[in-house]
Amino acid sequence: MPAPAISAAQTAATGTEAGTLPRHAPLVVATRDGLVESVHYGSAIATAADGSILATAGDPLAPFYPRSSLKPLQAVAMVRAGLNLPADLLALAAASHSGGAKHRGGTQRILAMHRLAVGDLENSTDLPYGTGEREDWLRTGFRATQLTQNCSGKHAAMAATCVINGWPVKGYLDPSHPLQQLIAATVTELAGEEPFARSTDGCGTPLFALTLRGMARAFGAIAAAATAITIISTSDDGGTAPLLAEAAVGLAMRQHPDMVGGDRRDVTELMRLLPGSVAKDGFEGVQLVGLPDGRAVAVKISDGGDRARMPATVHVLDSLGVDTAPLAGIATAPVLAGGHKVGLLRPTDFLPAPILSAPANEAL
């Protein structure tokens, strides 16, 4: 049964209405020679397949901007509107890519398939997001472009969706545009809650304030849909079923994690090392993970610190009983002094006990 939608009144009752500070908790610390040097506060949630709450830390019903972690939800809306791309390009539509050759080429492929050009994109300009990709790009004398900006795959898909439906390509970012109206309705449906505020993301796309619970619910649904389709397609009777938009996006991200992020990106490594997961990061310390069985994890680091995002996420996964041993390389980071390890970036015991399958008390 779907989880009930959270109303603005319910959220206000928790003390998280606009103008107040969320009640974040200490999630990650950096130690140096046994002394805690830095503390990253934030909030986290684990949800069951039906969207009910399994465990929380901090203030998971505080509205926040999911930033780029919204991209899989936006991609679902576009597939529902008729967008039909090869899996690698659909993964790119849900990506914050590193700006490598395969990402730039993929964006150009989407455009060419729909008789569009880079000039039709309405995203901002930027250098490649990946460190190595950015250095290579600058070394060759290039500068910031729309193609290298990490959201170019999503924008190419948005323009393509407009062509497919006969909608104007120019102005596709306007909140009143049919594409953005469809995306807003799809985000609301998948999250199970109305946006608490609206803004504009860094690339120019409309942005919605939601809760960690709502975002976890959406990622759980996308991951579970991909799993269900996989089971059907490998059944003994060889039966097939229509590919739901949620399943199409989830499968594409699972199959092409390198397109979702890129080489040396932790979100790509997480999906490679945790089979069946659907993961997406977002600026300002946001991380979402949907698991094959429909459970999900959502994390927001209050100071926007990117380094704290993955240690907190892996800690929640571990508390869910997920085998996180393969994630050791992205779960922590050493604190160095003179090239020698003197400390560690690690999660606190904000979820010290294993999480039971039964939902936790939802009266937050």
Helices and strands, with pairings:
Elements: H1 8-13, E1 25-32, E2 35-47, E3 53-57, H2 71-80, H3 87-93, H4 101-113, H5 131-139, H6 152-165, H7 178-191, E4 197-200, E5 206-209, H8 212-233, H9 245-255, H10 257-260, H11 266-273, E6 278-282, E7 286-290, E8 296-301, H12 309-319, H13 328-331, E9 333-337, E10 340-347
Antiparallel strand pairs: 1-2, 1-10, 2-3, 2-8, 4-5, 6-7, 7-8, 9-10
Helix pairs in contact: 2-6, 2-7, 2-9, 3-4, 3-6, 3-9, 4-6, 8-9
How many domain regions? 2
Shape: globular
How much of the sequence is in beta strands?
15-25%
Helix content: 25-40%
Q: Enumerate the spans where pLDDT stays under 50 for 5 or more consecutive residues.
A: 1-16, 234-241, 358-364
Query: Gap between N and C termini, in Å?
Result: 21 Å
What kind of sheet is the major sheet?
A: 8 strands, antiparallel
Based on CA atoms alone, the radius of gyration comes out at 20 Å
- Give the beta-strand count: 10
The number of distinct helices, counting runs of at least 4 residues, comes to 13
Mean pLDDT: 91
The ordered H/E elements are HEEEHHHHHHEEHHHHEEEHHEE
Structural class, please? alpha+beta
